[in-house]
Amino acid sequence: MRPLAALCSVTLVLAMLTAIPPASADDKTARTITVSASGSVALEPDQARIISGVTTEGATARAALDANSRDMQRVIGELKSVGVDAKDIHTASFRIDPRYTRPAEGEAPKIDGYSVTNEVTVVVRGLDKVGGILDRLVTAGANQTAGLSFEVSEAETALDEARKTAVANARRRAEIYAAAAGAEIGEVLTITEGEASPPRPVFARAMKSASAPIERGTETLEANVTVTWVLK
Question: Strand locations in the chain, DSSP E?
């Protein structure tokens, strides 16, 4: 004879299974298809970002700092004189480093001076100015150039076309998969945007400049999207 507790347990499980309704043929989440796709748009950069500055040395930190301040004022003044707006110049890094002697065996290194480095980021609006500005930076005393990059100023707006292409590509692929499985896609359930890929150069073209030769590339902006449709 089965224990009463065991019989009650079996009865409860059967009751719970009976209470769960079967999946309905009209349940839109029962059959879905999810596709991820990307879209891209290629644009020519219209502005540049230069990181440049001055490193100076001195027997004391104060001497190195005074020399650096004097040289940086000249560099910044030169940038403004060629039309770079003050809002497009900001400090990228500033540091004071001790300079050590090479110690003899068994001796500790000693400080014999200091170096000061001050770098600014300069946004150049109009790529025809880049070569000339680089030349003027060097002439003014800049002895450090940490980077030069090209940018699309209206990247967010340009990405809208890439987003439309990404959705269109996702739908085209979803229709192919659905047709191969003997179904059709219905309404959209969800759309999730992935992280936009950073701009990448596709090809380079020389800028017309009588000063420093500079190559700028066409930037590709890419958008990623994941879309889920109902299958019908």
Answer: 32-43, 47-58, 89-100, 111-125, 144-151, 185-193, 197-206, 215-231
